[in-house]
């Protein structure tokens, strides 16, 4: 690993030395040592370029080239390794979403979920290893854990987004992989009254796959910026509304077992094809009040509110196929085997489960922040910042089932399966799944079981809700030394934050009305009912992309009103409720370096953070014995302290040529669901008498671990950067991370369950004690892993005017990243795991033209294969190998620069023009496709007016 690190860093130096040739350097501008922080923009953001004052005579560069110039300026002036995306104009980030924009930054990739870029990985480490800030303040999330879902933030509200790859003592709540800082605009920096209104229409490439879906959407926004009281008081107000549709053809395979019925060759275990129609509705607003009555006082208040509601309509059929998995099927002779995989076969006695599902997620996010900067004396600043962030989310996840009869008693199907060229399997049935004469509302395979007895599960409802609340107070002092050479200034500060996340889960079995109690079969619950005519929709859904011509299509909400509910009281369901709290005290100090050393401009910082944490969780322990569920409250608290030193350096060896070095120890906290204290305890009396081995003990437990510590990392970054005119530059960065306290999510430890012995009979207790079998296994996350991550990032932002004036307006922005890792768990120290979200190779390329009001841009993003994270049963994460993918987006537009339409611009945009699907497979075999999701293309037309 060390040898590869040396080779890569050496290659970085060599490559950039070649790039920074004298031919390019001839036009390099003089060194720019402008301030790199904006004290009114929330807590100090290392490397955030201060807004430039604008007067009436200044020509402001906007659009694509203006965005790239601003991003280059931020990167150049920072001592910490940073990349950024800047707005092309007020209320106009260069992409459809924030996640789209971030995915163009070197070292950043995005995994698509539900047709949108959502899960960001930075330098091969997924969202669990990064943090997201708003104006320098840590944010809560509407997601299940810490990773921010960027859909909650309208992109129109932000002036720039910085991704810090290194650490600085003043950067509170930094991540291991990186820190994403969303920055709102500052009204006093704009220089004049500005009003911007925009609207954009959206259309999917194909018609709605579900009759109650839509292919059309829109987004509208308005921004007002003004200054008052002799430009000492500024306000900025923004509003945004969005309706975004998505159409998805989904295919999921259950797996590929080796089946003796086909000569122990691999066979499709089962399939679950769906069509899905999503509609995301979001509206929000921002407000900023900025007051600077003098050079000695600067005060800024920010507020952001976002509300969104996403509905998903899913319809499909689950086909059990493998006889060995209890499907009850048989396979006809004459099947086809290709390289050990059955690629065509006829399956008999198939009992399929039809699904008409409806999911709705409603969430709100509120963020408030107040920052004050007071100049004391000549150079000392006192800064005080208070913030509050709160997110709430409620899900309504409804499943409804239909089939030919209860528990495989209805008509059986004969299907023909044939593997397609894309790895999916075509499925051609014999039964007509839209025929209400044979299809009923029922539990077709008898899946319903409440832990003690069979229930008629004609549907299932999950209703989780979450509340995430974070309050923070921060204060700091900074100033300058006297004549100490390159030692220019100092800063000390402290921050206190209190975060609490409440996770509550409620679920219900749904069964036909007409008798019985608690949906149990034994109590007389009807096992099926006819499908009422008034719930049917006019158009039947087709799964013809795989071979199913039509299926029964009804309104699941109407069917929900026809079903009884029975509370899900299984221990595994009850223990999901939990509260996790974190009180964090952070103190920091740093020395600021800024001067000339050896005739070369030198800037940097040296400092340390001390972080003390009080971490606690409340929940329940639940168990099931002899048909009785027992629960007990439980709570726990742990305290620990971390010391995190860091240093940054930037030296300008030649005009425009920088060498930057960052070194730091960083940490990031585990997933919130891993910190929960809850446990699902199992008592299996059938194991009594099997011996003393832990796996033979009748006691076991699964849950979280309130004693978890943060992941830790020792980081080294070396960056070589050469800057030209008009925002042009080339850069290459080598990075290395040594990770410790890496969380193994499924570690097992020995535990003494003697406290549970009184729940058993005297004879059972005697047997267990006699064999010393009271020691069982607790499966819970533990800080037992570690390893290394290394890589190289390369960036070239080149306006072609650098080469010749004839190409003025043309340019490219190109990035490439290589990442390698070796992480091992303590439970399996001989086998390296693959990091979720890591692609070994990532690249983006943007070609653009912008001149005279006309602009055109095309962006292609590529990532090699990666370990994708998906939501499994009960929202538990599942990991599978994602196929390499390339996605092409493009846009053209025109802005009127003169005449009666001055200020008006129009835009045409296409997303995923390559129609690239999201594909995962298993066992590193691309033929064994587990998920195949096709989103097709989206088209946008927009109008913006600025006055």
Automatic annotation (TrEMBL):
Residues 75-177 form the TonB-dependent receptor plug domain. It is found in: Cell outer membrane. InterPro entries: Beta-barrel_TonB_sf, Plug_dom, Plug_dom_sf, TonB_rcpt_bac. The keyword Membrane applies. Residues 1-25 form the signal peptide. SUPFAM superfamilies: Porins. It comes from the Bacteria. CDD domains: ligand_gated_channel (cd01347). Keywords: Cell outer membrane, Membrane, Receptor, Signal. GO terms for cellular component: cell outer membrane. It holds the Pfam family Plug. The keyword Protein biosynthesis does not apply. PANTHER family: PLUG DOMAIN-CONTAINING PROTEIN, TONB-DEPENDENT RECEPTOR-LIKE BETA-BARREL DOMAIN-CONTAINING PROTEIN. This is TonB-dependent receptor. It comes from Sphingomonas adhaesiva.
């Amino acid at each position: 690993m060390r040898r590869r690190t040396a080779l890569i860093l050496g290659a970085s130096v060599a490559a950039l030395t070649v790039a920074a040739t004298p031919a390019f350097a001839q036009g390099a501008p003089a060194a720019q040592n402008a301030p790199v922080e904006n004290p009114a923009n929330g807590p100090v953001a290392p490397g955030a370029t201060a807004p430039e004052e604008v007067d009436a005579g200044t020509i402001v560069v906007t659009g694509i080239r203006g965005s790239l110039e601003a991003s280059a300026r931020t990167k150049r002036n920072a001592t910490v390794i940073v990349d950024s995306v800047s707005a092309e104009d007020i209320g106009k980030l260069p992409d459809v979403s924030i996640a789209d924009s971030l995915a163009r930054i070197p070292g950043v990739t995005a995994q698509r979920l539900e047709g949108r870029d959502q899960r960001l990985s930075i330098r091969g480490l997924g969202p669990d290893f990064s943090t997201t800030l708003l104006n320098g303040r840590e944010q809560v999330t509407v997601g299940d854990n810490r990773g921010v879902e960027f859909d909650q933030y309208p992109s129109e509200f932000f002036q720039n987004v910085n991704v810090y790859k290194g650490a600085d003592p003043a950067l509170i709540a930094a991540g291991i992989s990186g820190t994403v800082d969303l920055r709102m605009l500052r009204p006093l920096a704009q220089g004049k009254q500005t009003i911007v209104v925009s609207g954009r229409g959206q259309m999917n490439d194909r018609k709605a796959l579900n009759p109650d879906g839509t292919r059309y959407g829109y987004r509208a926004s308005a921004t007002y910026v003004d200054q008052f009281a002799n430009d000492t008081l500024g306000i900025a107000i923004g509003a945004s509304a969005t309706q975004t549709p998505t159409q998805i053809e989904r295919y999921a395979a259950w797996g590929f077992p080796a089946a003796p019925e086909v000569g122990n060759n691999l066979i499709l275990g089962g399939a679950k094809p769906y069509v899905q129609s999503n509609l995301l509705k979001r509206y929000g607003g921002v407000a900023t009040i900025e007051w600077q009555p003098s050079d000695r006082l600067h005060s800024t208040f920010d507020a952001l509110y976002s509300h969104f509601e996403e509905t998903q309509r899913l319809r499909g059929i689950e086909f059990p196929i493998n006889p060995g998995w209890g499907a009850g099927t048989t396979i006809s002779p004459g099947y086809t085997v290709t390289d050990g995989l059955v690629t065509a076969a006829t399956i008999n006695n198939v009992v399929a489960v039809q699904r008409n599902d409806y999911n709705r997620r409603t969430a709100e996010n509120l963020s408030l922040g107040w920052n004050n900067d007071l100049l004391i004396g000549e150079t000392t600043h006192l800064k005080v910042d208070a913030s509050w962030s709160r997110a709430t989310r409620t899900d309504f996840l409804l499943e409804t089932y239909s089939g030919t009869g209860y528990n495989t008693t209805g008509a059986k199907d004969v299907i023909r399966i044939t593997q397609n060229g894309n790895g999916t399997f075509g499925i051609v049935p014999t039964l007509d799944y839209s025929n209400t004469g044979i299809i009923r509302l029922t539990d077709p395979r008898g899946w319903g079981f409440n832990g003690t007895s069979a229930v008629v599960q004609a549907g299932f409802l999950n209703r989780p809700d979450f509340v995430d609340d974070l309050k923070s107070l921060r204060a700091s002092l900074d100033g300058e030394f006297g004549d100490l050479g390159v030692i220019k200034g100092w800063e000390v500060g402290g921050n206190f934050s209190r975060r609490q996340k409440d996770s509550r889960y409620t679920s219900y079995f749904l069964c036909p009305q007409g008798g019985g109690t608690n949906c149990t079969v034994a109590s007389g619950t009807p096992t099926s009912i006819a499908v009422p005519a008034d719930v049917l929709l006019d158009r039947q859904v087709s799964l013809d992309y795989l071979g199913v011509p039509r299926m029964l299509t009804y309104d699941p909400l109407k069917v929900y009103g026809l079903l009884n509910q029975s509370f899900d009281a299984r221990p595994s369901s009850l223990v999901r409720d939990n509260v996790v709290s974190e009180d964090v005290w952070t103190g920091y100090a740093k020395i600021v370096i800024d001067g000339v050393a050896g005739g070369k401009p030198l800037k940097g910082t040296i400092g340390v953070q001390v972080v003390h944490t009080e971490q606690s969780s409340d929940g329940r322990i639940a168990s099931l014995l002899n048909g009785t569920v027992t629960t007990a409250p439980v709570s726990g608290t742990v305290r620990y302290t971390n010391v995190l030193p860091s240093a940054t350096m930037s030296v300008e060896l030649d005009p425009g040529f920088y060498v930057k070095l960052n070194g730091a120890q960083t940490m990031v906290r585990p997933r919130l669901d891993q910190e929960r204290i809850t446990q699902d305890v199992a008592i299996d009396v059938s194991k009594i008498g099997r011996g003393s081995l832990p796996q033979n003990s009748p006691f076991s437990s699964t849950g979280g671990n309130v004693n978890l510590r943060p992941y830790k990392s020792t980081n080294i970054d070396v960056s070589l950067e050469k800057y030209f005119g008009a925002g042009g530059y080339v850069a290459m960065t080598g990075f290395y991370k040594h990770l410790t306290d890496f969380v193994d999510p499924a570690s097992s430890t020995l535990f003494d369950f003697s406290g549970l012995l009184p729940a058993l009979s005297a004879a059972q207790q005697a047997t267990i004690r006699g064999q010393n079998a009271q020691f069982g296994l607790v499966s819970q996350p533990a800080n037992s892993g570690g390893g290394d991550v290394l890589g190289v990032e390369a960036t070239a932002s080149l306006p072609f005017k650098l080469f010749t004036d004839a190409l003025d307006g043309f340019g490219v922005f190109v990035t490439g990243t290589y990442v390698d890792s070796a992480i091992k768990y303590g439970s399996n120290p001989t086998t390296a795991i693959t990091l979720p979200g890591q692609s070994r190779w990532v690249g983006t390329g943007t070609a653009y033209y912008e001149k005279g009001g006309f602009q055109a841009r095309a962006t292609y993003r590529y990532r090699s294969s990666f370990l994708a994270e998906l939501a499994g049963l009960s929202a538990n994460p599942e990991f599978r190998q994602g196929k390499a993918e390339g996605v092409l987006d493009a846009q053209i537009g025109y802005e009127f620069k003169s005449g009666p339409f001055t200020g008006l611009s129009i835009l045409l945009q296409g997303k995923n023009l390559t129609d690239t699907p999201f594909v995962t497979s298993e066992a590193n075999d691309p033929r064994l496709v587990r998920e195949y999701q096709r989103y097709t293309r989206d088209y946008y037309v927009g109008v913006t007016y600025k006055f």
